[in-house]
Specification:
395 residues; 15% strand; Butyryl-CoA Dehydrogenase, subunit A, domain 3; Butyryl-Coa Dehydrogenase, subunit A, domain 1; Butyryl-CoA Dehydrogenase, subunit A, domain 2; four-stranded antiparallel beta sheet; 3 domains; alpha+beta; four-stranded mixed beta sheet
Length: 395
């Protein structure tokens, strides 16, 4: 076996199956396109039609085990779906959460009953689950979560607030992380547990958070006022919630990365086409290095980010050491590349770059937000400094 055809090469060469997935997803997404997402945004309704068609075709559960009605193809396949959706101008934020986070966690830690009830629907794409972990006063310090889950005769009672929760308007249920028991006297950390809560549970209220992002997906603040949760909705064991959630955060970082690279590809395609056609002083503006070099540099950074993302997918699918490091690096690199690609595309268009008809201004906040969430670039740098470089912890 030569190195050119071995496993190392396979990780970076799309298989025929992946190519078919990308082509079919692109065909479906292009039937909807940017105009559909704009209508959904203006009408304040979720892109359910696109989601349902992709789910019926089997593309929203490609990473879910086949025995639970998924494709059994891992994160490499789901990343391909996510990137092509973003490239077509139809990114679906809930794909980061439902199949990537919830699906990954339930596949590894759900009880047989939970897998039948929830994972099978996620595999089919007809059950959607959002993820509620962030709180107003906790920031990136998950150990400081204040939401309390108190034992009752029949299960648990949840009280507290979550903020910046994505996709609730499309979801049937929520993954909710809450504190169970008292804080540790030495560390101050609370024991965190993971629950499944229906979005229409009595006592659960929500308000939308207006944001600058021009997309169909919305952000929510959730208020849990003594929400009753049956005992069988606890995922894993009490106090193990944070450990379980981490098995879903690497897929979330990967899917954030491909959303950024898909948007970046779209921006560079628009910029390159414009630079080839726009003629000033008797020559296409793309013939000038002042235009071509910034776009070329952005393209290089984009492909580096895509390469790291493929590495993260390969390591995660193989359950190999280094998957967490690669997923964090991929998300960091893709967010940085996405911002650069969109910014350079806007600059290449001149004044047209901020005209809504050219569709570039709409892309900006989609990639810029990825430098903040789901984990900030600063926390990724902390992770790399501490775990990759073995430097003293700084926070």
């Amino acid at each position: 076996m030569s190195l050119a055809t071995g496993p190392a090469a396979d990780a970076f060469v799309p298989s025929d199956e992946e190519q078919r997935i990308r082509e079919t997803v692109a065909t479906i997404a292009n039937r909807y396109g940017r105009a559909y997402m704009q209508r959904c945004s203006e009408e304040e309704r979720p892109p359910v039609e696109l989601w349902d068609e992709l789910g019926a075709a089997g593309y929203l559960g490609v990473n879910i085990p086949a025995e639970y009605d998924g494709g059994g193809l891992g994160m490499t396949a789901l990343a391909a779906v996510g990137e092509e959706l973003a490239f077509a101008g139809t990114p679906l934020l809930l794909i980061l959460v439902s199949p990537a986070i919830a699906g990954s966690v339930l596949a590894r830690h759900g009880s047989p009953e939970q897998r039948e009830r929830w994972l099978r629907g996620i595999g089919r794409g007809d059950l959607r689950m959002a993820f509620a972990i962030t709180e107003p006063d906790a920031g990136t310090n998950t150990h400081n979560l204040a939401m309390q889950a108190t034992r009752t005769d029949g299960g648990w009672r949840l009280r507290g607030t979550k903020v910046f929760i994505s996709g609730v308007e499309m979801a049937h249920a929520l993954f909710v992380v809450a504190r169970t028991g008292e804080r540790d006297a030495t560390t101050g950390y609370g024991r965190l547990s993971l629950f499944i809560v229906d979005v229409d549970a009595p006592g659960l209220q929500r308000t939308v958070i207006p944001t600058a992002t021009r997309g169909a997906d919305r952000q929510w603040q959730l208020f849990f006022d003594d929400v009753e949760v049956p005992a069988d909705r606890l995922v894993g064991n009490e106090g193990e919630g944070l450990r379980l959630v981490f098995d879903g955060l690497n897929p979330e970082r990967i899917m954030t990365a491909v959303q950024c690279t898909g948007i970046a590809r779209q921006a560079l395609d628009k910029a390159s086409a414009y630079a080839r056609e726009r003629v000033v002083w008797n020559a296409p503006i793309g013939s000038h290095q002042g235009v071509s070099h910034p776009l070329a540099e952005a393209k290089i950074e984009l492909e580096l980010a895509r390469t790291m993302t493929r590495k993260a997918c390969a390591l995660y699918d193989a359950a190999a050491k280094g998957a967490g490091e690669a997923a964090n690096m991929a998300k960091f690199a893709a967010a940085e590349a996405g911002v650069k690609c969109v910014d350079r595309a806007i600059q290449a268009h001149g004044g047209n770059g901020v005209a809504l008809e050219y569709g570039l201004a709409d892309l900006w906040w989609g990639v810029r937000t990825a430098k903040i969430a789901p984990v900030s670039r600063e926390m990724i740098l902390n992770y790399v400094a501490e775990h990759s470089l073995r430097l003293p912890r700084s926070y």
